[in-house]
């Protein structure tokens, strides 16, 4: 639901955000169509993908101990916190055993998890988040609260729309683990510090540009490009 400027969270009522708010507010019909497409597409995809998700669930249980799903708190539209659905790809309580981001050779990743991550199949359960309205198919990838607290005033504009399953930034940084590992080899900073200082600002350039050029057709193009990127 689109909010009036005065109803936005206080920390979002900044001039850096207003520019993007005015652009998006002129595209309310497209926003309604976007939500309608999210509902229809998520339902249509669930039907053929449920058997695949069932097989993945069994493989996860056979591969390692722990729950099938990974439920972590993330931040979506207007700063609302929700719990994301993902297939578990790491050992139980991985968040307590290391940083919130992963590098290419993170020992916390399970054997099955490594395979799921390579083809992005761990993201399939987010269809439920899309159907619930917590997420959209296309939008800024949801971050944990710890990273959102590091946002600049302009970055907060990305919270004007629901978090997304994919985005231009996701395509450009599909090998984020490897990028983190590369930085780790050249600096003594932690993975969290590297992500906040180097990677997050670059990803946000894509996300903010997507707000400026938002359109339903643009969303479809991102979904198509994501499909071919995963296939590669």
Q: Overview of this structure, please?
A:
The chain has a two-stranded antiparallel sheet with strand order 1-2. Strands 3-4 form a two-stranded parallel sheet. Helix 2 (28-63) runs antiparallel to helix 4 and helix 7 (176-184) crosses helix 8. 51% of the residues lie in helices and 9% in strands. The relative contact order is 0.15. The mean pLDDT is 92. The protein is mostly helical and 232 residues long.
Q: Secondary-structure element order, as H and E?
A: HHEEHHEHEHHHH
Helix content: 40-55%
Low-pLDDT regions:
none
Largest sheet: 2 strands, antiparallel
Q: What would you call the shape?
A: globular
Question: How are the strands of the biggest sheet laid out side by side?
Answer: 1-2
Radius of gyration over all CA atoms, rounded = 18 Å
Mean pLDDT across all residues, rounded? 92
Output the structural class.
mainly alpha
Number of helices: 9
Strand content: 5-15%
Q: How many E-type strands?
A: 4
Give the N-to-C terminal Cα separation.
Answer: 36 Å
